[in-house]
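Example complex used in Figure S2.
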Amino acid sequence: MEIFQQIFNLETFSSTLRMAIPLMVAAIGGMFSERSGVVNIALEGMMLAGAFIAVVVSYFTGSAWLGLLGAVFFGGVFALIHALVSIRYHADQVVSGVALNLLAAGGTVFLLNILFNTSGTSPSVTALPYWGPFKPTVYLGLLIVLISHYILFFTPFGLRVRAVGEHPHAADSVGIDVEKIRYVCVILSGMLAGFAGAHLSIGVLSVFREGMTAGRGFIALAALIFGKWYPFGAMGASLLFGFFQAIEIRLQGIEAIGIPAEFIQMIPYILTVIALAGVIGRATPPAASGEPFEKGKR
Amino acid sequence: MAGDMNSKELLKEISIPLLAILSSFIIGTLIVIASGYDPIATYGALLQGAFGGLNSIADTLLAATPLIFTGLTVAFAYRCGLFNIGGEGQLLVGGLTAAWIGTFKGVPMIIHLPLTLLAAMVAGALWVAIPAILKAKLGVHEVITTIMFNYISYSLVAYFSLKVLAKPGSIQTPDIEPSAYLWRFSNVLDMYSYLNIGFLIGLIVLFVIYYLLWKTTIGYEIRAVGISPDAAEYGGISAARNIILAMLISGALAGLGGAERAMGLFHNYRNGFSAEYGFTGIAVALLGRNHPLGIFLAALLFGALSNGQDYMNMLAGVPVDLVTILQAVIILFVAADLLFRRVLALKPEGRKGE
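Predicted assembly (652 residues):
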C-alpha cells in the first residue's frame, strides 16, 4: 500500500503533466509532418535546437517569453532544412532526419563552447514564470492539442494535409499544391518541437544542458505511433509515457521493491513495438509517408 | 548500382560523395571563420592528429574499425531494401555479450576467442530478430522498430553492465580474460595505440560481404529482393526469408563491431562504450554508396576526423563538435544528391524500390 501512496499522489500527477507536455507537443508536430507524408525522426534534434535557442535568447534579452518565441521560430527554420532536403531534393527522409539529429547535437555543443565557453551546462537564464501551479507552456501545450485536432479534422487545410499524406496524386489532381502543404507541415513540426524544447530548458529548468532532450524526441515519436497519428491519441500516449517518466524518477528512491528504473524506461518503446505488431489494435502510418512526391509519377 | 561497373558509371558513383565531402568542408571552413578561428590551423591540426606519425595513423585505423562494421551493417540491410537504423543497439548488445563471455575463466584461447566473437554476432543478430520478423511477416516498418530497439537496448545494457556485471561502485564490467584478447599491434610495434587485429577482421569481413553479395546465390537473392520484392517473389525467391536473413546478418555485423571494442580496445564493457558508431555507420554506408570498398574509404575518413578532433581542439582551440557538424552536413549533401545531379545536369537515378 505504501508503494501505491508513493506512486499515486498529487505530486506524481503534476510531474506526469510536466513530463508529458514536451512529448505531447513534439508528437503533435510529428503528426503534422507524417500526416502530410514526410517522416520526421528529427523531432529529437529539433527539440534540442529549440531548447538551446530558448536559453540563448533568454540570456541575451533577459526575456523568457522572447526565448520561447525564438525557440518556436528557430525550430521552424531548422525544420526547413529537413523540408528542403526531403521535399525539394527527394532525399531519403530517414537519412535527412538522422543528419539533423547529429547537426543539432553537434551544433548546440559547438555554440555552447563559442558563446558560453563551456561544453556542459549553460549559465542560468530567466525562466518562464509560474501561472498557478504550472508553467505557461503546460497550458499552451494542452491548447495546442485541442487546436491541432480542430485544424486536422474541421478545416480545409486539415483535409488537405490528410489527403496529401494518404494519396498525394489524387490530391494533386484536384489542384492541391502537395509540396506547399508538406513544406507548411514540416515547418510546423519544427516549430512545435522547438516549443517542446523550450518547455524543457526555460520551463522546467532555467539552463541548457548538453543532450538535455535525452531521447524525448523519440519517445514523442513513439507516442505519435502509439496514439495512431491522432492528436488526442498522441496526448493520451504522452500522458501514459509521462507517467512512466514521473514514477521512474520517484522509483529511484524506492527501488527496494525490485523494479529497476531501467525497466521502467523501456516501457514506452516496448509498448510501441507491441502496438506496431498489432497486438493491441494495429498502428498504421499514413499511406504516403516517406514517399517523395513527383508530379506525374505513381 | 552493381558490384561491377564501367568507368563512366564509376565516375558518377564517386563524384557525388566527393562533392558532398568538399561542400561540407567548405561549410565547415565558413563555420570556423565565423567562430573566429584560423581554418588553416584547424585543418592542419586535424590532419596532424589523424596522420602525424605511426601512432596517430594506428589510432585513425582503430577509430575506423567499428565504422567498418556498422557501415556494413547499414549497407547489407540496404542491399535488401531495408534500413537498419538500430546498429547502435546491436553493437552495444554484442559488445556487452563479448565483455561477459570474455570473462569466462579457464577456456583455452583457441576456443575462447572464436566463441566470444560468435556470441557477440549472435547477440547482435538476436537484437534485430523481432524487427526483422515484424517486417517480413507483417510489413511493420523496420526504421521505427529498430529505433525503438535502440532505446530498449540503452536501458538494458545499462542495467546489466552497471547493476549485474559491474564491480560494485564501478561503471565498468570486470576485465575479460587474456584468452579472449584480440591481439594488439603494440605487442610488436613501438606505439601506444590499441589498434588490434579487429581491424584486419574488418578488412576480411569487407571482402566476405562483397563476395557474399555479388558472387553467391544467397547474395543474388538478397539483392533481388532489395530491387523489387514482388519481382523476386515472382521469380521464386522468398522475400520474407531473405528480409529476415539480411537483417540477421546485418545485426551480426554490428555485434561483431561491439566485440572488437570489448576484446581489442577496452577489455571490458563500460559507460560510453560506443561513440555513436551505429549512427556514424549510416553516414559511412551512404557516403560509401553501400559498397564494401566505398565503406572502407568512408570509414577511414570518419575515423580520421574523430581521431584528429582532439588535436584540433588542443592546437587550434576549435570545439571537437565541429567534426559532428561536418558529419551531419556530409550526410545531408549525400542524401540530397539530386542537388548535385541538377548542378551537374546528370540524369536523375531511380531510387530504391522504383
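Chain B has 15 helices and no strands. The radius of gyration of chain B is 21 Å.
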